[in-house]
Amino acid sequence: MDHRPRVPLAVLPTPITDAVRLREALGGPARSPRILIKRDDLTGLGLGGNKARKLEYLVADALAAGAHTLITTGAVQSNHARMTAAAARIAGLRCILVLTAHSEAPALEGNFLLDHLFGAEIRLVPSTDPMLAVGDDAPVVAQAVADEQAAGRVPYVIPVGGSSPVGTLGYVQGTAELVAQLQALQIAPSRLYYASGSRGTQAGLTLGAKLSDAPYRLWGVAVSAGEPEKIERARRAANDAAALLGVDTRVTHEDLFTEQGFIGEGYGIPTAEGLDAIELLAQTEAILLDPCYTSKGCAALLRHIRQGAIGPDETVVFLHTGGAPALFTSRYRQQRAETAAAGRPTADESTGPR
Ligand SMILES: Cc1ncc(COP(=O)(O)O)c(C=O)c1O
Fold first, then answer.
1. C-beta of 170 in contact with ligand 1 (< 6 A)
2. Average pLDDT over residues 16-22
3. Helix orientation angle between 165-185 and 200-212, rounded to the nearest 10 degrees
4. Which of 61, 121, 157, 264 is the right S-S partner for 271, CB 3.0 to 4.6 Å?
5. Is 212 in the active site?
6. Domains detected in the chain
């Protein structure tokens, strides 16, 4: 790993929190496994999150290519876009973000506010779906590339989520870091839960687990639909990353299990269980999940614990991949208010196993 060029952007290693209060809320050691939270929400770059690990390798690759400008895409509240904008500032690069939005003038809040604060140039793409942030961003990216080249600058396009083979290296390295921490603690967790979107994290975690002999089973939790295409994307990214590293290890479809039961209505649309998970983690551990990714990943872990699918003698890891800026949006505030109005139990009232 160490021979791959890498720009230091993240505060590493990230800590591990032993979530004893959360475990207590789930019935204590008699009913709940020990829960370790790997705090990649604390990577530090522009309010932190998993993308910092990918960007360390992507920005190094961009600089090696002589790039002047990072160009990337995402939804208007993309964490990846926000962190790319922050990384560009540190690396002395320009940044163009092509963001899909429902409005021509999205509210200046959450990640989108931070994109502006980091001085990114923003080009909006109208969403073609009334609920989901999906749009045809390819021509807008092509135009941004052409504009940069016409101005005599070299653009470097980062695919959505930073999920390229180079970006995948971030979680190969992240796995080596985690496995070393677990070895020092003399703990062998049975499962590692994490939220899975564009799949660069999955590709890196899966390749990394094989290379580092990780003790746990990976338990990816999908936050968006389209599994067959995404499995193939993860497989390719992992194996191209293995080739970059010059190792013979390969990842197959069988290695790429992802839980599908927690997507809800779709990408970016919070679920009731996820909103509950946000309240529970905030009120037990003062840890902030996000409405789009980590709340769904954590909801899967909580349900499995409450159902008794993970024994109290086991230890599990939850990889916290960040995303808290999305809590500071009118959409989240509104959804939280609707949840309260619907009269579902708050975390305080629902701390027992169920
Ligand atoms: C907070 C958060 N968690 C998880 C993910 C999923 O990572 P990946 O896109 O590598 O699957 C993302 C991606 O944007 C994210 O922002």
1. no
2. 98
3. 50
4. 264
5. no
6. 16-49+164-350 (3.40.50.1100), 51-162 (3.40.50.1100)
| Å from CA of 143 to ligand 1 middle | 26
The one-letter amino acid code at 317 reads: V
pTM of the full structure: 0.95
What SS3 state is found at 93? coil
Amino acid occupying residue 194: Y
Please tell me the distance between residue 151's alpha carbon and the centre of ligand 1 in angstroms: 33
> Residue 208: CB partners within 8 Å, gap ≥ 6?
171, 172, 173, 174, 175, 176, 214
Q: Is the pLDDT of residue 328 over 70?
A: yes
pLDDT for 191-237, tens place per residue?
Answer: 999 999 999 999 999 999 999 999 999 999 999 999 999 999 999 99
Estimate the share of the chain in helix, then strand, then coil, as percent rounded to the nearest 5: 45, 15, 40
- Cβ of 268 less than 6 Å from ligand 1: no
pLDDT over threshold 70, residue 335: yes
Ligand 1 mean position to 67 CA, how many Å? 25
Q: Which of 14-18, 61-65, 130-134 has the lowest mean pLDDT?
A: 130-134
Does the beta carbon of 294 lie inside 6 Å of ligand 1? yes
pLDDT over 80 at 162, yes or no: yes
CA distance 197 to 107: 24
Per the DSSP assignment, residues forming a β-bridge with 69 are 94, 155
Which three-class secondary structure state does DSSP give residue 237? helix
CA dist., res. 333 & res. 327, Å (int): 7
